[in-house]
């Protein structure tokens, strides 16, 4: 091989004679040598003249754009929405007219507080934003996985976000709310208390994006062709069911696989296991709004499903990963102002503020007003307007006319169309100009209490433990006590448990409520995760821990049973070369034991050969695999050769630990459908 065929380090170059595959500059000029800059002699100075070097480096230097100020860490997926029930009587929106019609979509899931490079399993709200490329323009439903919000007026948003983000002097803590600044802000803003109940619940540590709900949060309007309006709240219900992890598990997942959620989504879609959500609407009228206990314009309140049932009108299917993360996931620009004829805003002051913020932030983030020209943001229906020029204009109006009205007849460009054009709902509005918060927004505790009493005992314990954890990270006692004074208005048991957890012996005075809470709101089962179990293991992952000589018939039975259920099976072995089973067949490893801890699986099976069982029992990652699975209430299948390891990991066998044979793989699956053996948690002492 001659020197000419070698790159700088002596490696062979990847060269081609195919013009199609020829590397070029951004100007289209073919490149002969991309490994060496232009020099005066082999050891001489690099020449300024080197346009290939300069162009490449210049572009690299400008690769980064500002990350989103919130929701920076996100993951986008293509899909489509299929209408299953037409609602022309409620809305003139084109997307809601024809049953069976599919509308392309792009959905981005996100965490709120962490930066782009933070970890997936932060305790945090998840964004759930969907762009519908409808035939009458783009509609963005920019929601969260929690149906209420921290604040009632958008003017408080910068403060809320500053308080949760890293402190400005030290630049930490990253991607967490467990610190003084956040709880200082919250405890001085009682309107946030309800949302913190959700945030301290397991909703804020979802098992994956696939297993969480989505909510439009605000009350919107649906407006029909006659101009009649109904109020609406939007819901996404995952067909996969709801599921979360437990806190100790979340902490460990962040270390084991900071990309846990995005990898889960990528893998599921790559495997053709497309996640789906039903789109539900809660529709109500002025009568209901006037009689409801709370103000429907207050985004810190929800409407219980028992009071207004959720009506399913369509299904979202996510079926394609992006081709390029930056071009699509990073450059997608959601704006709450992107609505279509038939859907309209209400006076919710949080929503009104968002309408300004999203457009504004995209201009900064994407560099100018033409971000709608980027393919992921452009409508897929025809569009015509007289907007022109600006940075990176990809399509300007054609012809000599770029204004209206004009008298150029058919050559005069696009014209208004009152028949199908957007019309705002003709709401009557009057009032004095003033900076006030409506009295009807003043109840901050009633729905927090309702949320708490709607949970199972296990879930209530998790909420108390989460408050205790987070407040224990607050160094200032006054902040801890101030929070406690609010929890006393939510529920005595909760306040007591948290006080005990914090070692508080003398309770503070309860906070003075702006309005006396309603204490007899009934529980709403829809608010609990555990009261709505999916009863399936489909879409979940079994970690199959195998050692040399493992019984092949058991391995096969487990693999088949779980595959038939629609679950994934990952093989974990002591070495990355995999293992040879009892029948001399082999299994390749998906993970070596210390790279595949049990926290990344939903259930585990230990199918061991007799050989080296004692040695495995002494392996620390193997012990952690088992003790964590046990502590996180997972179902564990085992064969007798795994006994030494189970003992070394301190496992006391219970109904959630199943001796597995080739014949009872199905029994193990039945157990796994419950997802967790919660009965164990009561016996485990986390204190
Ligand atoms: Fe956002 N929010 N937000 N937000 N939000 C942004 O817009 C804002 C709120 C939500 O995947 C930003 O493009 C204000 C509620 C999601 O790209 C920014 C207020 C809900 C995403 C912004 C809120 C959300 C954002 C930052 C209070 C649930 C990610 C980057 C009035 C209903 C979208 C961007 C994506 C992103 C402002 C409150 C959901 C700064 C001012 C309530 C899912 O414009």
TrEMBL record:
Its cofactor is heme. The keyword Ribonucleoprotein does not apply. Decomposes hydrogen peroxide into water and oxygen; serves to protect cells from the toxic effects of hydrogen peroxide. It catalyses: 2 H2O2 = O2 + 2 H2O. Gene3D superfamilies: 1.20.1370.20, 3.40.50.880, Catalase core domain (2.40.180.10). Residues 24-412 form the Catalase core domain. Pfam families: Catalase (PF00199), Catalase-rel (PF06628), Catalase_C (PF18011). Belongs to the catalase family. HPII subfamily. Transmembrane segments: none annotated. PROSITE patterns: CATALASE_1 (PS00437), CATALASE_2 (PS00438), CATALASE_3 (PS51402). The keyword Hydrolase does not apply. The lineage of its organism: Bacteria, Pseudomonadati, Pseudomonadota, Alphaproteobacteria, Rhodobacterales. One of its GO terms (molecular function) is catalase activity. InterPro entries: Catalase, Catalase_AS, Catalase_clade2, Catalase_clade2_helical, Catalase_core, Catalase_haem_BS, Catalase_immune_responsive, Catalase_large_C. This is Catalase. It is an enzyme of class 1 (oxidoreductase). It comes from the Bacteria.
């Amino acid at each position: 091989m001659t020197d000419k065929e070698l790159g700088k380090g002596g490696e062979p170059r990847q060269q081609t004679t195919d013009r199609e595959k020829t590397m070029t500059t951004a100007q289209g000029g073919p490149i002969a040598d991309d490994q060496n800059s232009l020099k005066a002699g082999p050891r001489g100075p690099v020449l300024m003249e080197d346009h290939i070097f300069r162009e490449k480096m210049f572009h690299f230097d400008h690769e980064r754009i500002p990350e989103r100020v919130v929701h920076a860490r996100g993951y986008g997926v293509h899909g489509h929405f299929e209408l299953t029930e037409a609602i022309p009587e409620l809305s003139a929106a084109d997307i809601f007219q024809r049953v069976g019609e599919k509308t392309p979509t792009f959905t981005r899931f996100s965490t709120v507080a962490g930066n782009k490079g933070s970890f997936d399993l932060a305790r945090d709200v998840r964004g759930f934003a969907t762009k519908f490329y409808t035939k009458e323009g783009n509609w963005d439903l920019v929601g969260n996985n929690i149906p209420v919000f921290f604040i009632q007026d958008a003017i408080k948003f910068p403060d809320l976000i500053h308080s949760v983000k890293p402190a400005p002097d030290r630049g930490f803590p990253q991607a967490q709310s467990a610190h003084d600044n956040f709880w200082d802000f919250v405890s001085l803003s009682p309107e946030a208390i309800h949302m913190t109940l959700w945030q301290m619940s397991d909703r804020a540590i979802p098992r994956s994006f696939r297993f969480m709900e989505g909510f439009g949060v605000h009350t919107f309007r649906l407006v029909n062709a006659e101009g009649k309006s109904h109020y609406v709240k939007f819901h996404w219900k995952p067909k996969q069911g709801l599921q979360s992890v437990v806190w100790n598990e979340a902490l460990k997942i962040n270390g084991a696989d900071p990309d846990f959620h995005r990898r889960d989504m990528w893998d599921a879609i790559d495997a053709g296991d497309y996640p789906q959500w039903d789109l539900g609407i809660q529709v109500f009228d002025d009568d209901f709004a006037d009689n409801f206990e709370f103000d429907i314009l207050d985004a810190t309140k929800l409407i219980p499903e028992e009071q207004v049932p959720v009506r399913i009108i369509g299904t979202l299917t996510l079926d394609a990963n992006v081709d390029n993360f930056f071009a699509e996931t990073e450059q997608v620009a959601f704006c709450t102002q992107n609505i279509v004829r038939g859907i309209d805003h209400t006076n919710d002051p949080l929503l009104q503020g968002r309408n300004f913020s999203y457009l504004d932030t995209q201009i900064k983030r994407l560099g100018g007003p033409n971000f709608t020209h980027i393919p992921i943001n452009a409508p897929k229906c025809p569009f015509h307007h007289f907007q022109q020029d600006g940075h990176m204009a990809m399509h300007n109006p054609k012809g000599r006319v770029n204004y209206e009205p004009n008298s150029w007849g058919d050559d005069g460009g696009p014209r208004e169309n009152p028949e199908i054009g957007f019309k705002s709902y003709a709401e009557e509005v009057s009032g004095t100009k003033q900076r006030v918060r409506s009295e009807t927004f003043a109840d901050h505790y009633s729905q927090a209490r309702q949320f708490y009493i709607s949970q199972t005992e296990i879930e209530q314990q998790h909420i108390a433990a989460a408050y205790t954890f987070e407040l224990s990270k607050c160094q200032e006692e006054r902040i801890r006590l101030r929070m406690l004074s609010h929890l006393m208005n939510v529920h005595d048991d909760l306040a007591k448990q948290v006080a005990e957890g914090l070692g508080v012996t003398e309770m503070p005075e309860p906070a003075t409520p702006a309005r006396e809470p309603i204490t007899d709101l009934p529980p709403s089962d829809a608010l609990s995760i555990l009261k709505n179990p999916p009863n399936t293991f489909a879409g979940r992952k079994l970690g199959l821990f195998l050692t040399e000589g493992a019984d092949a018939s058991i391995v096969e039975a487990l693999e088949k049973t779980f595959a038939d259920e629609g679950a994934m099976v990952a093989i974990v072995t002591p070495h990355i070369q995999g293992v040879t089973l009892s029948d001399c067949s082999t299994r390749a490893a998906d993970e070596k034991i210390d790279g595949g801890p049990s926290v990344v699986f939903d259930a585990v099976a230990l199918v061991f050969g007799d050989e080296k069982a004692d040695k495995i029992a002494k392996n620390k990652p193997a012990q952690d695999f088992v003790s964590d699975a046990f502590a996180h209430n997972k179902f564990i299948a085992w064969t007798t050769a795994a006994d030494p390891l189970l003992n070394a990991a301190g496992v006391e066998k219970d109904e959630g630990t199943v001796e597995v044979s080739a014949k009872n793989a199905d029994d193990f699956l039945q157990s796994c459908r419950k997802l967790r053996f919660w009965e164990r948690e009561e016996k485990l002492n986390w204190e």
